[in-house]
């Protein structure tokens, strides 16, 4: 049986993933509580519809039929029951495997079991598979293994979003879209601190042309709201840095997979992750990547992203360690004042129009901070 819908990632996928906070420390109760809170706290309504269990969910060995089996200790009711619960909340359910013989944490991988595993996942009712890149036999070719699992999923009789995770390695940009994957990790692993965010962002500055509807560059799961706690909580970020992190992921059309503990989320993290204006930039139906319109000193950047309604998202980012202004001359984006036009700016954090500007706009921005606007070209 073939899947019903062809297009599972018209816009960047959104959801929650267990890895960043919980690592191997996952179980049925956590997943049920998270499903409850994704709905009760407004995340589903904001667009976060995939709940994904990462590595460490299975028994250490396949069962007597060669099938993957959920850990009896962590998931005593089995994965079908967990999937049913997640679905009963109106969410979609995602799981994890690896194209090697073992997952990165040492659990059984899908190498040479691709078809049988795709069938197992479909029989449990999963809607999303994250597929990792560890422990591949050295003779195997990564792209072949992703193509194989994509094919196994496409014939499994269910719409399953395929989330490739090979960390941007082995020229993935050249072959991933044609494999059938719907999103792909184009970066190494994120950890919860400013250096990690800055480095991941810098690594993606030239990767825009590879991302678009159908298959999006994935800059890795969000660390917003972790405050240095949990599996990848190496130091934590300030609120300013979390805002910049989320705004960058939104401007770059990265999938938005929340990584903090939604059950105990802070008000500020919840407000940021549910910022409708930033989410609408990320989810813009045209899925265009931004271009770099200005780069001052290598650490003050302005990005422009054309949107489907004729407006532009403009992101000013201050990567430097000082409070400073960040400049954009409208000439550089095609709006000279001699033309008789200027730019009206709507602030995506204040949620209001801040004015019409002629020639240029250069907000003062805190160290590691940003300012994000939706811009209209208007007659002066
Ligand atoms: C890494 C992957 C992480 C996480 C981890 C699980 O390779 O990039 O996102 O899935 O494996 O072991």
Characterization of the model:
It is a single chain. This protein is α/β, with parallel strands linked by helices. The chain has two domains: 14-282, Alpha-Beta Barrel (TIM Barrel); 291-379, Golgi alpha-mannosidase II (Immunoglobulin-like), CATH 2.60.40. It contains eleven helices and 18 strands. The strands form four sheets. The protein has an eight-stranded parallel sheet with strand order 7-6-5-4-3-2-1-8. A hairpin with a 3-residue loop joins strand 9 (291-296) and strand 10 (300-306). Helix 5 (114-124) packs across helix 6 (142-154), helix 6 (142-154) packs parallel to helix 7 (172-179) and helix 9 (239-251) runs parallel beside helix 11 (276-282). The N and C termini lie far apart (58 Å). The model has no long low-confidence stretch (mean pLDDT 97).
The ligands bound in this entry are: beta-D-galactopyranose
CATH class annotation of the largest domain? Alpha Beta
Strand proportion: 15-25%
Instruction: Compute the number of structural domains.
Output: 2
Global shape: elongated
How many individual helices? Answer: 11
């Amino acid at each position: 049986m073939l899947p019903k819908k062809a297009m599972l990632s018209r816009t960047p996928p959104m959801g929650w993933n267990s890895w960043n906070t919980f690592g191997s420390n996952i179980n049925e109760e956590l997943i049920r509580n998270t499903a409850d809170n994704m709905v009760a706290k407004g995340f589903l309504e904001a667009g976060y519809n995939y709940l994904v269990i990462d590595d460490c969910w299975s028994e250490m060995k396949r069962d007597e039929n060669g099938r993957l089996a959920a850990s009896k200790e962590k998931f005593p009711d089995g994965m079908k029951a967990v999937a049913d619960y997640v679905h009963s909340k109106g969410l979609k359910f995602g799981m994890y495997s690896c194209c090697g013989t073992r997952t990165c944490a040492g659990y059984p991988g899908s190498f040479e079991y691709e078809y049988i595993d795709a069938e197992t996942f479909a029989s449990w009712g999963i809607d999303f598979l994250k597929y990792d890149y560890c422990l591949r036999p050295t003779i195997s070719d990564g792209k072949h293994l992703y193509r194989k699992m994509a094919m196994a999923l496409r014939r499994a009789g269910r719409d399953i979003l395929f989330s490739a995770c090979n960390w941007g390695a082995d020229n993935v940009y050249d072959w991933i879209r044609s494999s059938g994957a719907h999103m792909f990790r184009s970066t190494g692993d994120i950890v919860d601190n400013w250096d990690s965010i800055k480095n991941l962002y810098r690594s993606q500055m030239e990767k825009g042309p590879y991302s678009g509807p159908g298959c999006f560059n994935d800059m890795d799961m969000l660390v917003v709201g972790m405050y240095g706690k949990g599996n990848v909580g190496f130091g934590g970020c300030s609120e300013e840095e979390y805002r910049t992190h989320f705004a960058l992921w939104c401007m770059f059309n990265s999938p938005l997979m929340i990584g903090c503990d939604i059950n105990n989320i802070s008000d500020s993290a919840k407000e940021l992750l549910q910022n409708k204006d930033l989410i609408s930039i990320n989810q813009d139906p045209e899925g265009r990547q931004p271009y770099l319109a200005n780069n001052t000193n290598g650490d003050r950047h302005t990005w422009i992203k054309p949107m489907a309604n004729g407006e532009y998202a403009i992101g000013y980012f201050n990567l430097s360690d000082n409070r400073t202004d960040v400049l954009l001359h409208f000439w550089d984006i095609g709006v000279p004042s001699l033309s008789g036009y200027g730019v009206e700016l709507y602030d995506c954090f204040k949620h209001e129009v801040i004015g019409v500007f002629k020639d240029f706009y250069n907000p003062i921005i805190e160290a590691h901070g940003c300012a994000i606007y939706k811009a209209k070209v208007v007659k002066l």
